[in-house]
């Protein structure tokens, strides 16, 4: 490629011109499509891994009927709690807290709510939670990678200004409230950083699981470590304001990442020592040693 051709290449990433399309009176939102695509991908990968661990085919989809709604509710509650100034106070519309289609989901709330929903289903069906979490872990990271594209279409959760050639163009109407930047300012595409980090994490986790036959919750712990390591760094780049954006000099998300990373690492060490010399995985992913066939496909 010639120097002249290189000079014609754009030195920034343009943001989408729109994130909503209309099919008659029905709005089709890119944000929602990305979330749905992520859920489908997680179910597909999780089901393959669950069957490989001795689980019943299709059961991951059954769990998703509980976990996904609980995760969405948890994600929205977390977002509203940490960004309540967007919805409550002078000149704000409290009903906006319910408009989930406009974006605004907190990953920590999604994980907590989703885990609760999955745990309730697993208890009802006699499924051991740890092997199920191990089977689903890479799929969760894959879903999070795909879901970040929704932030791209919404022009949200970007980083601070940058002159790097992959800087992200953001419409001034989507700049932080009260912020003022020079015309042509581009920003760190933190959605892209997290997307790539998560995809690399999926490959790493699957490879390590195949190599060492990890079990007893250790794949899920590894997922937490991989995700929080990247998320903690990415949080330091973001400029969107939240209620707890300065806790002892760090954003709340950074502290969450640090605490969860340490907890997951400690779990890996403790479980590894406790089950040293034993089979790395559970003999069966069910409490009674056999899958519940009452809802199995004929």
TrEMBL record:
Transmembrane spans: 28-46, 58-80, 100-121, 128-147, 191-208, 215-234, 254-271
Lipid bilayer topology: Multi-pass membrane protein
Binding site for a 1,2-diacyl-sn-glycero-3-phospho-(1'-sn-glycerol): 148
Metabolic or biological pathway: Protein modification; lipoprotein biosynthesis (diacylglyceryl transfer)
InterPro entries noted in UniProt: Lgt
Gene Ontology CC: plasma membrane
PANTHER family: PHOSPHATIDYLGLYCEROL--PROLIPOPROTEIN DIACYLGLYCERYL TRANSFERASE, PROLIPOPROTEIN DIACYLGLYCERYL TRANSFERASE
Family: Belongs to the Lgt family.
Protein name per its UniProtKB record: Phosphatidylglycerol--prolipoprotein diacylglyceryl transferase
Source organism per UniProt: Nocardioides aurantiacus
Gene designation: lgt
